[in-house]
Structure formats: structure tokens, C-alpha cells
What we know:
The complex is a heterotrimer of chains A (100), B (195) and C (353).
Chain A: H1 3-18, H2 23-28, H3 46-57, H4 59-87
Chain B: H1 2-19, E1 26-36, E2 40-45, E3 60-64, E4 81-85, E5 90-95, E6 100-105, E7 107-112, E8 129-131, E9 136-141, E10 146-151, E11 168-173, E12 183-186
Antiparallel strand pairs in B: 1-2, 1-11, 2-3, 4-5, 5-6, 7-10, 8-9, 9-10, 11-12
Chain C: E1 5-7, E2 14-16, H1 17-34, H2 39-48, H3 56-78, H4 83-110, H5 113-148, H6 162-167, E3 174-177, E4 182-185, H7 187-203, H8 208-219, H9 223-247, H10 253-276, H11 279-305, H12 310-352
Antiparallel strand pairs in C: 1-2, 3-4
Helix pairs in contact in C: 1-2, 1-3, 1-10, 1-12, 2-3, 2-12, 3-9, 3-10, 4-7, 4-9, 5-11, 7-8, 8-9, 10-12, 11-12
Amino acid sequence: MTTLRRLGVAVCALPLALLAPSLAMAAGGKSAPIAIVADTRFIDNSLMHWWAQMYNENHMAFALMTMVIIPVLGVILGVVADFFMRMTGIDLEKRELAEK
Amino acid sequence: MKKHILTIALLAALSFVLTACDYDGGVEQGRVVAYEPGKNVTLVLDTSPVRNKPLYNGKTAVYKLPVDSMDMGADPTCGGLLAVNPEKKTVSVYDPAGKSVRELPVDFTDVQKDIDARHPLVAGKSFPMIDRENLTVTVYAPTLRSLVTFSPGAAISMPPDTWKFGDEARVAFSNAEKGQALRFMNITKTNIFSR
Amino acid sequence: MDWLYMMMPISGVNIFWPGLIILGLGVGIIGGFFGLGGAWMVTPGLNILGFPMAFAIGTDMAQMAGKSLISTMRHGKFGNVDYLLGIVMLIGTVIGMEIGAQMIMWLERIGQVDKVVRWFYVVLLTIIAWIVFADVAKRRAKEREAREKNQEVDKLESGFDWGKRLQAIRVPPMVHFKHAGVYCSFWLPICVSLFTGWLAGILGIGGGLIRMPALVYLIGCPTHLAVGTDLFEVAISGLYGAASFTYKGRTELVAAIIMLAGAAVGAQIGVVATKYVKGYGIRIVFGMAVIGCLFSVLFRQLAAELPSMANLFTVLATIDVLGLVSLTAIYITIRMLKGAKAEIAAKKRAAGN
């Protein structure tokens, strides 16, 4: 199985996690109902400005983007790290399964 | 392998299309001078070009409150006092009758610096303290971390709320409908540093 | 030195970004090695960096999801992840967490919930630490016994064999988790994950700290498989948690990405280190980490119970966690470097011959 196919399995399993609306709450404790507005008046960087303004205007889009960015970035960083780890000459495919 | 890369790329592209709309709205910040729960809020805007150095020079704006309760922060306290400036010997207040900001010359009789909100002189006290005998007003200015007492002269006859700091608030809006707040944050009552 | 500080676009707070990378690196190493999400390690670190706590959990979950994904990819290559077991466990975890969360809300209505929960946490961590070290002692006793009879203990043998006994309960349908080498009733991982999910839901934690030992002692997974499989679950539940907190506007993604850069490196170190450390080595260091966590919870509890000494205990809790993270991360890194050096030297020798 390739890494990406395994990733596919992970994506398929995601709806399972979505079944539990309070999983995150359970996982991270309660959060008080507070509304936060990002102060975009002083952000010069256009990408950061766009990002913060999206946060202000559309939480759903912001959450969707996060859901995409995190795993995609995770895979990219994983692949890059893999490239460098291979250069070290360590065998990254085998390990001895032993308790002692 | 290629198929999976394609799927991920498509997924990423789709979400970009979904989300990469023009978020060209804006944000305004200011002190709340009027508030009608469930309807609208009036702010005297902070027009300073520098962060954390507010400048209230008269620009006001009225916003309809957000539709979704999730986007509405804590109910704000209104007040007419916008800024105290012991160096310039002035205070800025909002005059609801003239719907304008007035900079009043005052005499500062006492300025105690380095006082935080937990200081015994401040904690549990309610401000402004208006002393009609001595014609003085005492307020706590959190931005200056100071407890100040000043004498506004004849202006002391203005309504008591004139000497109360309104909460600082920040409002997000879209360019399509500038008068409608998409989200309302009560900066004074929101401590992002505590959980 | 302005360039060392970066403004977070959502909260508008200036943060010392190298601190975020170091924090990410540390939890990346530890998470990859033990199969933990490690929220309990990240929060005190973020606090010290002056990170706004309103964004701490969401940001932590976002980086945790990315970091665990990187670690899972690496563990997967070693064959340390049983995806089927992970998915089956996910069902129980989700339902268990939901029950736990509902129960905590019910307890909240009665009152005094925080205190009860924290003491419960202390008891649970004590039990886990006891199990880890009692198991180590038992395995040693088995070895001594075998030596007396001039025999050798199987290398996959563990001290406690609760896993084997539970596997022997043959309630259909039976499932073979090939990678983990476990043949058991489908209901065993469901029940175990339901239980660990329930505990995590009650305690308000991600659950890696409980699930990893449960996989080892109750399901009978080899330690390496337990670490990899648990990380797979942490990645999925972390992603969901991040989505939920982000939707509530409580994630500073830029900070999560910076931490992730550190964690990507840390994850490599942590996971590759498991190649050079045998199962019991991992278990012993895990037991020590549990004791460190136990003390941090204990200090926080004492801070809540003795308000006059609250500052002292809060500082002690922070020192405890940060000291634990640094020492453990350094230890794992040294083990990884030594192991890699020996392996490369051996390869060179082999090539020379």
C-alpha cells in the first residue's frame, strides 16, 4: 500500500470521527462563547491580510482551508523529510520487532 | 500514486475555489457610545495609524449587530468618555446631543501611574466617581494604567455617563454591506490570554 | 531583534517564532516515539511564549494532526501501523468520547467536577505508571526464571499477558489484524477503545496517553505497533478537533504551521529512534513520561486546592513539563543518533568487506 492510499483510508475514516460532535470538546475541554475579530487594519502582508479577513468574514471557509492545509502540508513536509532522511543512508523500511 | 496525487490536488483546488473569494471587507475599532441590544451599536472610531495608540477624532459609525449569536461578543457597556490626556490636559468625550466628539480642557488634580486593574484602589470600585462638591471626576484609564482625577469645570453638569469609558469594540464587515457587522468583538471584555 | 518576532494575524500578538519551532520539535520527537498527541506538553510551552490561550487548544490540535500524520507516514513505512485496527478502534473511541463528554456535562450540573476529574486523572496516571513498571519487573522475573532453566524468553513476550487472555475470548466475528499479529474478537478492540475513549472524554484529553498502553496491555499489540497505530488515530481525531475549534474561530493556523515545521523534523527523530530501541525501552521511558505528567497534574491540583501557594505550584508544574519534554527529547535524540551512527558504520564495514 502506498502512503497516499493509506491516506485515502484515513480520509474514509474521517466521517466516523464526524459522528461525534463533542469529540473535540471532549478532547480539548470547554471553550467559552467568545467572538474574536482579527485586527486587519495593520496587517501589511497581503496573504496574511487575506487570511485574517477570511477569518473575519467566513469561519466556515477558514475551517475548510485549515482542514485542507494541515494534511496537505503534513504530507508535503513528510515527503520532504523523507527525501532528506534517505540521504542519511539509514534503512527506513525495516526494523526488528522485539520487546527486549 | 499519480491518481492519488491528482485527487489531493483536485481536493485542494476545489477548496481554494470554494474559499478564495475576495475577502475585501474591513475592520473598524472604536469605543461604544450607544448600544441597542439585538439591533445596533454606535462606535466612535479609532482612526490612529498606529496599533494600540487610539485616536478618537470624531468619526462615528453605526453598525447593525451580527445575525448569528455565535458572531456576537459580550454585551458592551456604553459611555461618553473616549480618552484622557494628562500631558495635553484634555479629555475627549462624545456629546450625544451634537453627535460629535469634544476635546475638553481640564485640570488634572491627581494622576497615579502604574496601577493595574487588580490594584486595591481600582478593584471592586465603580467608576466614574463624580465629586459634585469639589467638582472633580475620578476615572481609571486602563490604557494608561493610571487612576486620574480631573476637574472639568462647568462641563461637570453633563450627564454622568459622559465620564464613563465605553467598552472598546472591533467590528468586521464586508464591502457589500458596510453597515452590517459580520462579527462584533468586545475587546474590553474579551481576554484572549485566559482560556 | 525584531525579526525573531512574528505577528500572529488573527490574535494580533507578537510571538517569538523560534520558540514555536523548538516546541514543535520537542513534541514531534516525543509524539513520534511514544505515539502521543501530547496536548498536555504543548499548552504550558505556549503559555510561556505568551501565546494567547484562547487559541491554544485549536492551534495545538492543528499541529498535532499534521505532526501525527507525518509520524504515521514514517511509522507506516516501518510497518508499525495496523490501519484496520486503527479504524476499528476509532469507532469505539468516538462513541466512548461522546459518552464521556455527555457524562462530564451531567457531572458539571452536579458541581465540583474539575476537582473530581483531576483526582481521577491522578489515580489513572498512577495506575498506568504502576502497570508499566510492574510489567517490566514481571518480564525480568520471567527472564530470570528462564535462565535458571537454561531457556530463553520469546522476544515478543511481555510481563503481563492480559492481552493474550483477552484475545482468547472468542466472541464472533473474529478478526485478524495482520500487521499487529493479533487474532481476536472484533469486540475486543471496540470495547477497549470504548473504554479508553470514555476515559479521554471524561478527562477532556486526546487520549494517546491512555490508548497507547491499552493497545499494549489489553489488545496485546507489540509496542512499536501500538505507537504507530495510536498515532494514526491521533492524526484523525486531531484533524477533526482542529476543524471544530477552527470553525469556532479558535485556531491560529500560522502558529500551527510554524510548529509543524519543527515537528516534521522532530517526528523523524522520534520515529526513527523507535528502530533502535526495543519495546521495553520505549515502555520504560513512556512510564517515566507518565510519572512526569502525573506530577504536573498533581501540582496543578495543589495550586487549585491551596490558593495561597498557587503561583509556586503553577511554576513547578510548568518546570516539570518543560523539563520532562527537554530531557525526554534529548534522550530520544541521543538514542536515535547513536543507533543511526552504528547502523551506518555497520553498512560501511559490510561494504568494505
